[in-house]
Design brief:
Length: 145
């Protein structure tokens, strides 16, 4: 980058956060992680922090923050290979997903299992020449026939 451009960028002051919820972002995330509803979070912010805010505002704030974590800005590009490796590593380590070998063995074992026996229950049969009838309940005899 040209030195003149870098000087201009360095001389610009930091932009203040656009959301008034930004200073409370950690508190909101922790409250939600602890199972609080958006309504409860709004009530806590109003009572304890003197910040009246609607439920939808909190929801939008949380949604935008989670989206920005999933999709880093263009300045922080990550190669697709590194992203795929990180996802795989995170899913295996954090979620306790078994390794691929174990999954393949389970799939093969399921394929080798015999198919379940066919049910002997009579399936529905429609005959257009016969009237429809309700099935008899077990233990009761029909008296109308």
């Amino acid at each position: 980058m040209d030195d003149n451009f870098q000087d201009v960028l360095d001389s610009l002051p930091e932009k203040p956060p656009r959301s008034r919820l930004e200073p409370y972002g950690g508190l909101i995330q922790e409250l939600l992680r602890r199972g609080r509803t958006y309504r409860e979070v709004a009530r806590i912010l109003a009572d304890k922090c003197q910040l009246p805010v609607s439920i939808s505002t909190i929801h939008d704030f949380v949604r935008l923050r989670s989206r920005s974590r999933r999709n880093p800005s263009k300045g922080h590009r990550v190669s697709p290979d590194a992203r795929a490796k990180a996802k795989t590593r995170a899913s295996v380590e954090e979620l306790g997903i078994p390794p691929a070998d174990d999954v393949r063995q389970r799939i093969n074992a399921l394929k080798l299992r015999p198919a379940p026996a066919q049910s002997s229950l009579k399936q529905f049969h429609y005959d257009p020449n016969e009237p429809l009838r309700l099935p008899a309940k077990a233990g009761k005899k029909r008296t109308d026939e």
